[in-house]
Amino acid sequence: MQNLWETFLTRRGDLLAALGEHIQLSLIALLLALLIAVPLGIWAQNHPRFAGALLQVTGVLQTIPSLALLGLLIPIVGIGTAPAIIALVVYALLPIFQNTYTGLHEIDPAYTEAADAFGMSKPLKLVKVQLPLAMPVIIGGIRTATVLIIGTATLAALVGGGGLGTFILLGINRNDTTLTLLGAIAAALLALVFSWFIARLQKWPWRVSVGVLAALALAFGGTAVYQAIAPQPETIVVAGKLGSEPEILINMYKQLIEQADANVKVSLKPNFGQTSFLFNALKSKKIDVYPEFTGTVVTSLVKPTAKQNQAIANGADSYPIAEKLLNQQQLTMGKPMKYNNTYAVVVKQDFAKAHQITKLSQLNQFATPLKAGFDLEFNSRQDGYKGIQSLYGLTFNVKTLDASLRYQALDGGQVQVTDGYSTDSQIRQYHLLALKDDKQLFPVYRGAPLMRQDFAKAHPQVVKALNQLANRITEPEMQEMNYQVNVKGQSAAKVAKAYLKAHGLLKEAR
Amino acid sequence: MNVLKFDHVTKRYDGRAVVEDLSLTIGEGELFVLVGASGSGKTTTLKMINRLIEPTDGDIYFNDKRLIDTDLRDLRWNIGYVLQQIALFPNMTVGANIALIPQMKHWPKDQIKQRVDEMLEAVDLAPEKYRDRMPDELSGGEQQRVGICRALASKPPMVLMDEPFSALDPISRTSLQDMVLRLHRKLKTTIVFVTHDMNEAMKLGDRIAVMRSGKLLQVATPEEIAANPATSFVSDFFAGAAPALLDTPIFELASFGTPTTEQGSYAEDTPLQVVLGPLAEGKHVTVTAQAGNFKLNASQVLGYLAKAK
């Protein structure tokens, strides 16, 4: 609880921004859904044959899993808020259409007969009699749709749409439940407030309700349109994967680029998504730069030849191979940084000191196998525990653990060895040591800025600015920075700036 | 002068005539009552006047002009309507319900306000007490008084009333009948009033039209009908409820009959009297009914009549 409050205090600015995005996303989706579903429900009254079909269609749309729907939309409308809003509208159609239709359909026919007999025109009958009588049912549908939208809008974060989902995703990624809780609680509260507000709307006179809705539509729709059409200085979009390390790196990119060229503005999209998502976003020009690892490029993003793979396995630098293959896709990578964020076998510093161990091969000195906690994937990978057994000839007494529990198990003494990544903040936090991979089992993962070739050609000053990080940042330095952000709750921007200043990359005058 | 004229009007649904070759005239200022059992076609006849239902054949004239040549909105603004279900709009106050048609006619605001109060007073509801209340706060009798106000508010030359008091308790019904008579004497509005209750017809009607199975049996003043009923049905209708009882759709007798799997020889909505002949000859009748086919014999029908009385 205490923890939650502290996280809230340090992050309240971000939370507020995410909340604003979430509200904007939800309101736009709700208003669009209203504009589609309510007239459709009214129209269906006089076309009962279509009503059944429409109910079927909206019902089927709702059964599409939200993740699948987002995935299907990305190739069509790209990433960002567009696919998120479309998906939300799709889900909101059914409850609003269904309740509008049934609400109008179930009006006692005596009322419509009376309205006809009094010579009311069709529009007047609709506004004065039918809609007011159906309003409680319609509002019920809108409330259902709203709660649905606000809940589902958390998934927008997966496609770069922002919102409270960024907190939830980040929390899951960093194994930080307070962040997840913060996002989830805010979304739940938002749903409650909106639901209550809409229920109130019903009690107000008809015209006031319409006025309030129109004002909201204008306010949010207007800002969205303005943002879309207003002329803006050249903006370079720099995105990062989930987690603190990419966020620190992109903040460094931003500061370096803006120092090099005062005329460009850098827009950051931290915690933007997973690898393939960012890679596609880069190719489709939704983003301009993101930090990627050479190892990830050669294993997941390009297809090296068998010969190249052999070379990499034998310890060759993967950067030139990655760059060569990327060029075939009209992409290019800047110069890599120093640290290697790869698998690491981790022990406690006390343990290492007591047995004078710094290298992985030195673990062969123990007669009885050490207790090891490995996650499932590491345990089964050729460049994981299997390689340790064959290349180093080491055998451990292995327990497979969930990745999130490894460090606690090591800290608590339940295991003596665990796997991790060489820049994990926990190494700094729990006073651990990442053993040197002296026989080069683990692939090399060096970070470098990935961009399109056309972008790099058009912005030589950006490439130059980013290459200032070449061969900079060691593993302990990255561990420390991750620790500052993850554990100490510092902002990534501040940590990035401190590093750049300390290393003379950022001029004090700024 | 004839305000309304039916000229050989027929209404068929799927080939079945609900109103058949109906001709009648209604004079200005008349309180004209259409009376008959359910299924006699009286409500259909009424609803053809304001074109809620369109006739299949024949013409209806309002002030010597064919209805189909009249602008629908003008027609309906000139013909008030009171429903059996009352149907005051529950989202509007009593005052707003009454003001509805004057508003559509764009009367000046203060005139509408004055008219609402005037109408409420005319039906013995204190305006300041009732004007701003919602319909659901009123008793059934009070609601139908407001319903009558709503129909009369824009001073239409004619008002249609479709069994307006059949859902009310006997005391409210009597006082509302008295009120309608009083209003009619005062306003001289032409009223076409539908009822299944002969007593109500006799009490209210300047003239009465007795209908049965879509046909007009007799149109006359109450006194003439009492003195010279045109058919035995009309005289029975007068004598009391018996003819209505014989018009009962036969499915009402299901609980007195014997269930059977046989194919029925009569539809379930056949009037009781149609099967009296075969029964008198000592035969069974079999009835096809949605709830299950059944057989009836004479003593079972007598059992029903004894219970129904």
Automatic annotation (TrEMBL), chain A:
Topology relative to the membrane: Multi-pass membrane protein
Record's subcellular location: Cell membrane; Membrane
Start and end residues of each ABC transmembrane type-1 domain: 19-198
Keywords: Membrane, Transmembrane, Transmembrane helix, Transport
Keyword Manganese: no
First-listed, main subcellular location of the protein, grouped into a coarse class: membrane
Keyword Secreted: no
Domain of life: Bacteria
Transmembrane segments: 25-44, 64-94, 145-172, 178-198, 210-229
InterPro entries: ABC_Gly_betaine_transp_sub-bd, ABC_transp_perm/SBD, EgtUBC_SBD, MetI-like, MetI-like_sf
Protein name, entry field: ABC transporter permease/substrate-binding protein
Organism: Lacticaseibacillus suilingensis
UniProtKB/TrEMBL annotation, chain B:
Annotated family: Belongs to the ABC transporter superfamily.
Ranges in a coiled coil: none
Family annotation (SUPFAM superfamilies): P-loop containing nucleoside triphosphate hydrolases (SSF52540)
A GO molecular-function descriptor: ATP binding
InterPro entries the record matches: AAA+_ATPase, ABC_transporter-like_ATP-bd, ABC_transporter-like_CS, P-loop_NTPase
Database matches in Pfam families: ABC_tran
PANTHER family: OSMOPROTECTANT IMPORT ATP-BINDING PROTEIN OSMV
Protein name listed in UniProt: ABC transporter ATP-binding protein
PROSITE patterns referenced in this protein's UniProt entry, alphabetically: ABC_TRANSPORTER_1, ABC_TRANSPORTER_2
